[in-house]
Design a protein that fits this description.
Elements (H helix, E strand, L loop, with lengths): L1 H10 L5 H13 L5 H9 L2
């Protein structure tokens, strides 16, 4: 998560921080799941 957030800080785009953090966590913890399972995981409320 540090890399995407660092890029956002350096470019001054902190409004995107929550999206970057969520995407980084999805990539980290969902990388071994099939695409259909990942889609269901990120779209559940």
């Amino acid at each position: 998560m540090a890399l995407p957030l660092t890029v956002l800080v350096l470019t001054g785009q902190l409004g995107w921080a929550a999206y970057a953090a969520f995407g980084a966590m999805t990539a980290l913890f969902g990388r071994n799941e099939p695409y259909r399972v990942r889609l269901r995981t990120v779209t559940v409320r």
